[in-house]
Amino acid sequence: MVGPLSENTISGSGFFIGTKGCVYEGDSFLGSWRSFLPMGEWKFVTNHALVLAYLAKHPQMTARELSNSIGITERTVRKIIADLETEGYFEKEKEGRRVRYNVNPKLPFRHHTQKDKAIEKLLRALGWKGEK
To answer: Helices (DSSP H) in the chain: which residue ranges?
Structure first.
């Protein structure tokens, strides 16, 4: 039996937290308090993949625009752009005051289990229509 409902009662809900963080509704055990927390933030698509996909679709997008679109800092975007350029995933070309990013869709994925596949498949899955 669980101890008295005191400060552990969740106001007006009928739920309470018992010993060792167990959540109850009346006498019914519902689970650990941790099971009621939202799922941790993780994504299937990395920030590197998102930056590359955005640059493939919008070759003149600035780091600031990328930052605002993806939801990461401009500094992180610039680091990712440097990583991708170093590995040859695109070339930069100056057009007036702007830079155009020419993505090379034929390069393989970096992970050893996916090196036989071109990033073009990922780019297309993320909405890229192909080279213009």
So the answer is: 47-57, 63-70, 74-86, 120-125
CATH code at 56? 1.10.10.10
**CA angle, 92 then 50 then 86, to 5°:** 35
pLDDT digits over 89-126, tens only? 999 999 998 999 999 999 999 989 999 999 999 999 98
Question: Which amino acid makes up residue 59?
Answer: P
Give the C-alpha separation, 8 to 92, whole Å: 59
Counting the structural domains of the chain, the total is 2
| Position 32 confidence tier, pLDDT thresholds 50, 70, 90 | low
Residues 26 and 89 in one domain: no
Task: Give Cα separations from 24 to 9, 38, 41, 66, 118 (angstroms).
Answer: 9, 18, 27, 46, 51
pTM of the model as a whole: 0.67
Contact 90, 103 (CB under 8 A): yes
25 and 66, same domain (yes or no): no
